[in-house]
Amino acid sequence: MESRELQHVEHGFGPVWDADSRMLVLGSMPSPKSREAAFYYMHPQNRFWPVMAALFDEPVPEPTAEARRDFALRHRFALWDVIASCDIAGASDSSIRNAVPNDLAPIIRASRITHVFTTGGKAAQLYRRLCAPQLAAAGIDIPMTPLPSTSPANARMRLPQLVEAYRRILA
């Protein structure tokens, strides 16, 4: 059972990207399972990797950081999160308080990233409030498209609906 008590959480691991990355996919804050594995979307019921595999017409990468890092870089998408640290209860985005944003400018400047996508409503909200002003102050004007959460908490969206919503990243 997940704790409902707020805990101060540090992100704990860095972004996945390289100079050829073309898009940046941002979540809010890694879940406890992802923090434990030190990689993105590692909860076994999170549908992020099945969605991305369907988009790129490939098998779902093995549930290892190495396999998933290779998949992301091969398909030229970077992964990170909006938040560097916050107070949060378990994996509950709605509980997030005292969010401190990651500085996205260095990886955007050092890559070919031309678009940001956020996964879930809270990531989009926090990006608009915390990251967009920082990027604007750094002279970076980059479009952001919000996408639905792939979390098991977003049970109303089935895998085919998520795949269809995520097709925007291929444009």
Automatic annotation (TrEMBL):
Q: So what EC number does this one have? A: 3.2.2.15
Q: Which Pfam families match?
A: UDG
Going by the entry's taxonomy, the superkingdom of the source organism is recorded as Bacteria
- Its top-level enzyme class, in one word, is hydrolase
* SMART domains reported in the protein's UniProt record: UDG, UreE_C
Question: Matching InterPro entries, A to Z?
Answer: Hypoxan-DNA_Glyclase, Uracil-DNA_glycosylase-like, Uracil-DNA_glycosylase-like_sf
Q: Which GO terms describe its molecular function?
A: DNA-deoxyinosine glycosylase activity
Domain Uracil-DNA glycosylase-like, which positions?
Answer: 13-170
Keywords assigned by UniProt, alphabetized: Glycosidase, Hydrolase
Q: What is this protein called?
A: DNA-deoxyinosine glycosylase
